[in-house]
Amino acid sequence: MTLLSATFHRCGYGPVNVLSDVSVSIDEGEAVVVLGANGAGKTTLLRALSGMIPFVGSMTFGGATRSKTTPDAMVRAGMAHVPQGRGTITNLSVEDNLRVGAYTRRDREVAADIDRWYEMFPRLGERRTQQAGSMSGGEQQMLAIARAFMSRPSLVLLDEPSLGLAPLVTREVFDRVAELVSGTGTAVLVVEQNANLALKFATRGYVLESGEVVTQGTAAELQADTSIREAYLGGPTEATS
Amino acid sequence: MSAFFQYCVIGLSNGAVYAMVAMSLVIIYRATGLLNFAQGETSLIATFVVWEAHDRGLPLPLALIIGMIAGFLLGAVLQRVAVQPAGDPATAPLQLVIVTIGLLLVLNNTAGLIWGNESKVFDPMFGPSSVNVGGVTIAAQQIGTVAVLLVEALALVAVFRFTKIGLAMRSVASNAEASGLSGIPVARILVISWGIAGGIGAIAGTFAAPNLGMDATLFLKILVLSFAAMTIGGFDSLLGAIVGGLVVGLITDVLPRYVDWLKEMPLAPAVLLILAVLLVRPQGLFGSKQVRRV
Questions:
Q1: Mean pLDDT of the region B127-137
Q2: Which chain A residue's Cα is nearest to B164?
Q3: What angle do CA A41, A42, A43 make, to 5 degrees?
């Protein structure tokens, strides 16, 4: 079942247009990656999807049309967005961060959900009363992701979760998100510079260039694509082996 | 010696009023990162509503509640109609400060237009009685003012700590973007923050007016001293606002009694104290150190 489908003809910041021709669609429970160089429009795409900036085009999410929307409305509709680098609310405690994530929920299982996150990530449990800003970069990124999942979304947008993290930590973050995707059935759209890692994690991908989708396909197709190998995967050498 | 303590009592009860206004300034600063010059005049109009309701026969506590509701609505409407459209405090802080200064003038003139310029009698909520403790006279109103300050502070802390709206306010203050992406309606939270600040403005006025006289200039002096209190306490700390308010009250009421040249310039000690604090401890006594990402 298609969860999200969006076509943007025009989207940007004031007079500066960033996206000129981008169509994406995501099925329920699917893990999709967006590749592209700096300035290709990856972050802008996520911002348009989550209602942070207006766009010209069309979007349907969860069976309803969303032409003019706001971030809090999109969260209520089931979309959570972990922004680049600044996903944690640093002055709040770890526990308050998770409670903020559940802000739109009206059910009584919030406390139980928070406990489940502490079981899954004991580090967060140990630091539940500490200021989130005092944790390491990897722990903060995991907290930001946990906060996004606290809203029980059907789609999570992840903007460069690897930014500023050591390779080993990045791999762990991706492993955890992969577990979450298979465990909860939540779809994920991830923007990532580390294409090797992202294509192992995702089943499908889009390649953005100057605000347009230039290539799309399954992860295997993209991995086999010579031009993509050259641009994002460190050269064509392995292609011949 | 008893004269000294007498001055201290006066200073503390005046300081409690500065602390109340400083707390409302802190709430707005934490929410929107903005120094609200119109906060005093928002409080002025809320206080005039209290006076009006009391003048028409309502008991003072009930009149105060009506004034707080009026202050809440006024603060909320100002934020929504005048401040929010004027831009983002992160990118246009100067424009927004000018907007609040404009609001100061508009609100002050509006108050003068509605309620006239002659000073009105404002009854003390805790009556005219007083007790004598070792030669120091303490009015029931002075004890009441400090007690109300403490109750108000505890109530605010409870709202911030234990309610969902308080969680949202703290979250927006720390990271508005991530808060919005977590489903918090940021714009509405800012409106509510200004509303709360306006509402507690009525309390400050209700306890300042019996002493200073109920007229349109009531908050002009109070606001300067409350800014001093806010600076001393640290711009973003409620506890700091309380301590700062009491310190400013003590200094401005006690020092001029002993230092002759200060009698002519009673605000000078507060200004000197601000300078000293900013030099030694720029984040104030209780403020959080600002970590700026470049």
A1: 91
A2: A103
A3: 95
Count other Cβ atoms within 10 Å, centred on residue A57.
Answer: 16
What's the CA gap between B44 and B63, in Å, rounded? 14
Chain B residues touching A133 at Cβ < 8 A: 291
- A87 with B178: Cβ contact below 8 A: yes
Interface contact A151-B185, CB threshold 8 A: no
Q: What is the Cα–Cα distance from A67 to A56, expressed in whole angstroms?
A: 8
Say if the ipTM goes beyond 0.90.
no
List, for residues B81-95, the tens digit of each pLDDT value.
999 888 877 778 888
pLDDT tens digits, one per residue of A197-209: 888 899 999 999 8
Per-residue pLDDT reduced to its tens digit, B251-271: 999 988 888 888 888 778 888
Torsion of CA B242, B244, B248, B254, to 10 degrees: 80
Element (H, E) at B11: helix B2-32
pLDDT at B53: 97
Q: With beta carbons less than 8 A apart as the criterion, state whether B93 and B104 touch.
A: no
Angle at which helix B218-233 crosses helix B2-32, to 10 degrees, equals 80
Give B136's strand partners: B133
Residue with tokens 């992840």: A158
Q: Express each pLDDT in B20-79 by its tens digit.
A: 999 999 999 988 888 899 999 999 999 999 999 999 999 999 999 999 999 999 999 999
A167-184 helix and A137-150 helix, angle to the nearest 10 degrees: 10
> pLDDT > 90: what percent of chain A?
59
Task: Report d(CA A183, CA A1) in Å as an integer.
Answer: 18
Q: Amino acid identity, residue A219? A: A
Extract the tokens encoding A9. 């003809």
Residues of chain A with pLDDT under 70: 233-241
Express as a percent the part of chain A with pLDDT over 70.
96
Sheet holding A187-191, edge to edge: A79-82, A155-159, A187-191, A31-36, A204-209, A212-218
Tokens of B237: 């700390």
pTM for this predicted structure: 0.88
Of A69, A75, A52, the closest CA to residue A152 belongs to: A75
Distance from CA of B181 to the nearest CA of A (A): 5
**Of the partner residues B171, B174, B180, the one whose CB lies closest to the CB of residue A71:** B180
DSSP A93: B
- DSSP one-letter string for B20-62: HHHHHHHHHHHHHS---TTHHHHHHHHHHHHHHHHHTT--HHH
Closest CA to B19 of B229, B266, B199: B229
